[in-house]
């Protein structure tokens, strides 16, 4: 008869082993899943912040420049000459004189605009075009089209634009995109249009204001769904339409698979367009996808290892009791008395030894589980308060009278007496050394502290975490015993400790807060080095501190530092950097994080100054310099200051070299011409740009980039310098004005006061 299947003892042992291994393995797997979810939420929040930051910079840069262009158009629209000439049917000789003066005003407005290349005024009644280059009568319209490199259909759209103002997107004859900002002038009753003012802005000038966006696109989009790229490669296959973009800061997903993108936008304050960014989703979530793959591999490995270990231990290490009973029954059936139980005795002895090992393993597993639960709760991976409370109750840990969290770190390990004179040290691994050190540490700590105060000692992030019940009246006793423990380590092992303690807390929910308090104290002790106490307790933080309240003063310092670097006064900049650091640090445990944030913020500001002064992001230099990595590796305030000054010296040397190597030849020639011809009253940006055959906007922008001054400001500086010499020789203000190229003394006085803060007469009196 076929025997029915029944679960044998070995099967039950196998199932119990399998269940145990799965339970032990599922706890870290569950924590990994919780960590994955938290990381995913963090990544989404960081995407919002990063995209909003990029769009905010783009919006500020473009809107500021476009607003300047619009303001220039409005100023010209209110110009009396434009209004008067717009009423005339035919230009007279006096009108041509007015046109020449209006042309000079166009040049002046154009000189103030960085992104605008041309300003044109079209007079409806005469059909004439006036630009900064000349006047084109109606008969010369074809010549204007040719010189302006604009398409006739774009000019027609511009002249037919309704309303007071607007814009037109077009292309020049070379196929490059341009935006034309339009201002319309009407008669007093708005029945007929008298003139049209339009300012030409090449799209490449706007692109220079945008950031470099890798793995995505930064683009401009209007209500007609016209799109112009600001930066980046190409556009994704699918991007949100203008109507879909409703809420600023909201992330929009488009596309599928590897082409799926994440987009957001910010609205312009000038017109009905929006600044958009679209990034490939896989660039953001690449690390999380790998984490997801690792968790999947963990699940497979957990199941495989649990099955194999359960099979091994249930069938190899433990001989089932059923085999013993079978052996006894076999002896009984033979009719012989049981005389020799050596085999059974050896089995039972082995079973007892294995049970002892299993008990020890269970205790270690239990301690490990307690550590994982408490660690997970502190780090935020586990939010189950009831589980933590139950774990503490199992360890007979009571929170009724309050508790403190202490974080202990071992210092100067290499000077420990356990290793100094050890002849076989080379034969041991670093892991074995740490096990030996941990064994000695736990023995002394348990004897002096833990045996008295009954706390929980855990290993966490390379330090020791000690959670101890502390009634208010026994807080000093706990600190005293921990100091004794530190003295014991110092005298017996030459091993020093830093101990940071939290304030007293009374609920499990405050465990993470207590841990963070201990971390801050330990960070403070490590940062200030040997001058710190062995053990310190956290004090309540506050914000009413003069140094912290004067954050606006720090911003002023940073602007001053940038100005000094811009004009090449590097020694004064280094002195100011020292002054900033003197006023920046607060020697108070409660401000350790503030000190670290300020130091990293100062380094970030210096690196951003380098980028702004060079006009580009010098990633290769910063990658070699490693400023933030070098700064954050320092563990004392003095070494951090030295490192900051070393990095600043490297940055200023690099900046000087780049500015000298990259300065175009025409910049040097322009400086020389200004030095030689500053007495010429007509000397200005228009004259110099025509001499070097350069675009006005390009020359003004580039000259300022390499010298720190606009062309006109540089001319003023040279003239004022010469004026001081003449005044010191006794010359009058009026004569000095004529000598250095100003039309009258009034102009000299106005510019002198703007440059020096005093009038020429006050300067002359100060010499007397």
Query: How confident is the prediction overall: mean pLDDT?
Result: 76
Choose one word for the global shape. elongated
**Stretches with pLDDT under 50, minimum 5 residues:** 1-9, 333-341, 542-552
Oligomer: single chain
Major beta sheet summary: 6 strands, antiparallel
User: How many β-strand stretches?
Assistant: 16
What Rg do the Cα atoms give? 40 Å
Number of H/I helices: 28
Structural class: alpha+beta
Description:
The protein starts with 8 loop residues before the first helix and ends with a helix. Strand 10 and strand 11 form a beta hairpin. The chain is built from 28 helices and 16 strands. The strands form three sheets. It has a six-stranded antiparallel β-sheet, sandwiched between helices. Strands 8-7-11-10-9 form a five-stranded antiparallel β-sheet. Helix content is 60%, strand content 13%.
């Amino acid at each position: 008869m076929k025997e029915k299947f029944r679960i044998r003892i070995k099967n039950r042992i196998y199932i119990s082993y399998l269940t145990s291994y799965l339970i032990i393995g599922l706890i870290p797997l569950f924590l990994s899943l919780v960590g994955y979810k938290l990381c995913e939420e963090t990544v989404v929040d960081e995407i919002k912040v990063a995209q909003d930051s990029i769009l905010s910079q783009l919006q500020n840069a473009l809107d500021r420049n476009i607003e300047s262009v619009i303001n220039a158009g409005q100023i010209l629209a209110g110009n009396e000459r434009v209004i008067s000439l717009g009423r005339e049917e035919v230009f007279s000789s006096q009108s041509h004189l007015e046109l020449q003066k209006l042309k000079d005003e166009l040049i002046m407005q154009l000189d103030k605009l960085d992104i605008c290349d041309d300003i044109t005024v079209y007079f409806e009644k005469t059909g004439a075009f006036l630009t900064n280059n000349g006047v084109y009568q109606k008969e010369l319209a074809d010549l204007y089209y040719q010189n302006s490199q604009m398409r006739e259909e774009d000019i027609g759209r511009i002249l037919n634009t309704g309303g007071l103002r607007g814009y037109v997107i077009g292309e020049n004859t070379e196929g490059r995109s341009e935006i034309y900002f339009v201002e319309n002038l009407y008669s007093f009753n708005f029945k007929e249009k008298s003139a049209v003012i339009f300012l030409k802005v090449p799209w490449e000038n706007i692109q220079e204001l945008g950031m470099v966006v890798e793995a995505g696109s930064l683009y401009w989009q209007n209500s007609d769904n016209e799109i112009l790229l600001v930066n980046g490669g190409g556009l994704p296959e699918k991007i949100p339409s203008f109507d879909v973009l409703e809420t600023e800061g909201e992330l929009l997903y488009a596309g599928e698979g590897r082409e799926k993108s994440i987009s957001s936008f910010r609205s312009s304050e000038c017109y009905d367009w929006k600044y958009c960014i679209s990034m490939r989703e896989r660039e953001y979530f690449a690390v999380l996808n790998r984490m997801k793959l690792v968790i999947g591999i963990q699940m497979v490995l957990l199941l495989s290892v649990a099955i194999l270990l359960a099979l091994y231990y249930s069938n190899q290490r433990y001989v089932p009791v059923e085999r013993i009973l079978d052996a006894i029954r076999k002896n009984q059936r033979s009719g012989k008395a049981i005389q020799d139980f050596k085999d059974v005795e050896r089995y039972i002895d082995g079973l007892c030894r294995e049970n002892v090992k299993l008990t020890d393993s269970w205790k270690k597993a239990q301690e490990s589980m307690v550590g994982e639960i408490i660690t997970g709760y502190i780090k935020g991976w586990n939010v189950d308060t009831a589980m933590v409370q139950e774990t503490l109750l199992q360890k007979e840990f009571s929170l009724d009278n309050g508790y403190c969290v202490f974080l202990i770190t071992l210092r100067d390990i290499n000077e420990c007496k356990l290793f100094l004179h050890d002849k076989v040290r080379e034969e041991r691994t670093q892991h074995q050394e740490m096990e030996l050190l941990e064994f000695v540490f736990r023995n002394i700590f348990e004897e002096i502290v833990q045996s008295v105060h009954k706390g929980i000692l855990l290993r966490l992030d390379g330090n020791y975490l000690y959670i101890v019940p502390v009634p208010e009246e026994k807080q000093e006793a706990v600190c005293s015993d921990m100091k004794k423990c530190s003295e014991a380590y110092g005298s017996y092992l030459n091993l020093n400790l830093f101990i940071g303690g939290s304030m007293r807390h009374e609920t499990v929910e405050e465990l993470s807060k207590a841990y963070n308090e201990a971390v801050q104290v330990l960070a403070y002790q490590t940062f200030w080095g040997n001058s710190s106490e062995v053990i310190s307790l956290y004090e309540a933080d506050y914000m009413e501190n003069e140094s912290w309240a004067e954050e606006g003063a720090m911003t002023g310092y940073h602007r001053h530092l940038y100005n000094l670097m811009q004009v090449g006064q590097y020694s004064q900049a280094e002195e100011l950097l020292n002054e900033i650091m003197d006023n920046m640090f607060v020697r108070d445990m409660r401000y350790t994080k503030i000190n670290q944030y300020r130091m990293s913020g100062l380094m970030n500001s210096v690196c951003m100054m380098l980028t702004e002064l060079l006009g580009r992001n010098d990633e290769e230099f910063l990658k070699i310099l490693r400023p933030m990595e070098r700064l954050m590796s320092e563990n004392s305030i003095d070494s951090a200051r030295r490192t900051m000054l070393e990095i600043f010296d490297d940055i200023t040397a690099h900046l000087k070299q780049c500015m000298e190597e990259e300065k175009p030849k025409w910049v040097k020639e322009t400086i020389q011409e200004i030095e030689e011809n500053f007495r010429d009253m007509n000397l200005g940006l228009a004259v110099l740009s025509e001499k070097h055959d350069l675009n006005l906007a390009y020359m003004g922008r580039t000259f300022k980039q390499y010298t720190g001054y606009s062309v006109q400001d540089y001319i003023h500086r040279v003239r004022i310098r010469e004026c001081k010499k003449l005044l010191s020789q006794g010359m009058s203000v009026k004569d000095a004005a004529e000598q250095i190229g100003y039309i009258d003394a009034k102009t000299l006085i106005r510019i002198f006061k703007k440059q020096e803060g005093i009038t020429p007469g006050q300067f002359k009196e100060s010499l007397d």
